[in-house]
């Protein structure tokens, strides 16, 4: 019996030397010290021994058992430490490595010019109005003093949804929508998309942006219009920019004008960008036509107003010296990253 216990001890020691991971270790523990283990079997068989041998063998078996448990625990500790160390090595962070660069997005040039325009007008006390892109013919044309079959309709190749509904060809219908709802004093801009059945080329797109402006109050004059627009243009393009008002015709304003700015490339000398003119047209404007006021229930004897409409793409092209409108819509990052 003694030899048997001694042999088990040696076997366990030998096995332990070869155990290279925690699982092997656990298997050894089960094989020898577990419920059905070899040493456990010896202890269970003690009953069959003569009474005088029992205490001696019992003491020896318990001693060996305790010894082996200590050995196994020690080995376990050793293996866990090794594992921990390997894990730490694997997870080490080199704080001197360069980080991954996060690319930041940018505003689209049209968005940032739109923001500048809004900021300038907000600073002058204007409010921002918003309205539908699918619009009634009445608002897009009739209420603006452009009756059916009037030749002025031809200049805006309009997308018709049906006889009464169009994709708005200008932001001017917002003048009517605002005046129907709000009594003077009115001071708004209405930015948004407009649609025209134009083929795409360097200066045309079937979808583009306009910003409408409208001021109505008692005693508003052409001087207010000129002062406001000059202030706007100089804020946007710089105080040295020259501004020119040129007589024009629009159905919904009387008198009407187009506004030119001195060419930002040549400063007025004449160059390729301004086609030798020295001036670049940037917006249409005028005093709100009395008929338009009365169409909205505003008495033209009591109130007067001015309106203007500018094309955002044009303004952005001029601000950034871009000669092809299509660049704004192609979303080529090599273009967009430059702003
Ligand atoms: N709606 C005109 C266009 O698209 C631009 C315009 C001209 C707007 C004169 C106005 C204005 O408010 O007074 O061509």
Keywords for this entry:
single chain, 339 residues, alpha+beta, BirA Bifunctional Protein, domain 2, 2 domains, seven-stranded mixed sheet, two-stranded antiparallel ribbon, 41% helix, 19% strand, binds 3,4-dihydroxyphenylalanine
Q: In the CATH hierarchy, what is the architecture of the largest domain at level 2? A: 2-Layer Sandwich
Overall radius of gyration: 44 Å
Count of runs of 4 or more consecutive helical residues: 12
Bound molecule types: 3,4-dihydroxyphenylalanine
Give the assembly state of these chains.
single chain
Proportion in helices:
40-55%
Widest sheet: strand ordering = 1-4-5-9-8-7-6
Give the CATH topology of the largest domain.
BirA Bifunctional Protein, domain 2
Low-pLDDT segments, ≥5 res? none
Report how far the terminal alpha carbons are from each other: 92 Å
Total DSSP E strands: 9
Strand content: 15-25%
H-E string = HHHHHEEHEHEEHEEEHEHHH
Overall structural domain count: 2
* CATH class group of the largest domain: Alpha Beta
SSE layout:
Layout: H1 2-18, H2 22-33, H3 38-44, H4 54-90, H5 109-123, E1 127-128, E2 134-136, H6 137-140, E3 165-167, H7 173-181, E4 186-195, E5 207-217, H8 222-237, E6 243-250, E7 253-262, E8 279-288, H9 290-295, E9 304-311, H10 312-320, H11 327-330, H12 333-336
Parallel strand pairs: 1-4
Antiparallel strand pairs: 2-3, 4-5, 5-9, 6-7, 7-8, 8-9
Helix pairs in contact: 1-4, 2-4, 5-10
Bound molecules: 3,4-dihydroxyphenylalanine.
3,4-dihydroxyphenylalanine is lined by residues 170, 172, 212, 250, 253, 284-286, 307-309.
């Amino acid at each position: 019996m003694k030899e048997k216990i001694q042999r088990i001890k040696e076997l366990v020691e030998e096995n332990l030397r070869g155990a290279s991971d925690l699982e092997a270790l656990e298997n050894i523990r089960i094989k020898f010290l577990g419920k059905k283990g070899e040493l456990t079997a010896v202890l269970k068989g003690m009953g069959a021994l003569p009474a005088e041998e029992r205490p001696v063998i019992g003491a020896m078996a318990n001693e060996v058992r305790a010894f082996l448990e200590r050995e196994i625990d020690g080995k376990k500790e050793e293996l866990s430490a090794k594992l921990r160390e390997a894990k730490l090595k694997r997870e080490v962070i080199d704080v001197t490595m360069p980080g991954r660069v996060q690319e930041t997005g940018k505003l689209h040039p049209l968005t940032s010019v739109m923001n500048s325009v809004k900021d300038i007008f907000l600073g002058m006390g204007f409010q921002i109005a918003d309205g539908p892109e699918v619009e009634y013919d009445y608002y897009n044309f009739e209420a603006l003093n452009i009756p059916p079959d009037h030749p002025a309709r031809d200049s805006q190749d309009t997308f018709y949804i049906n006889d009464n509904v169009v994709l708005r060809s200008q932001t001017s219908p917002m003048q009517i929508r605002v005046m129907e709802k709000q009594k003077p004093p009115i001071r708004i801009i209405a930015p948004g998309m407009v649609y025209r059945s134009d083929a795409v080329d360097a200066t045309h797109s079937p979808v583009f942006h306009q910003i409408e402006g409208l001021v109505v109050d008692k005693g508003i004059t052409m001087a207010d219009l000129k002062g406001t627009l000059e202030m706007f243009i100089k804020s946007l393009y710089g105080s040295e920019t020259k501004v020119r008002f040129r007589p024009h015709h629009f159905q919904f304003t009387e008198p009407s004008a187009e506004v030119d700015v001195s060419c930002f490339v040549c400063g007025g000398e004449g160059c390729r960008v301004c086609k030798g003119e020295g001036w670049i047209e940037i917006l249409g404007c005028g005093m709100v036509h009395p008929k338009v006021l009365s169409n909205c229930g505003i008495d033209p004897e009591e109130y007067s107003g001015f309106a203007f409409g500018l094309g955002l793409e044009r303004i952005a092209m001029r601000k950034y010296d871009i000669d092809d409108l299509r660049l704004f819509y192609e979303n080529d990052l090599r273009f967009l990253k430059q702003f």
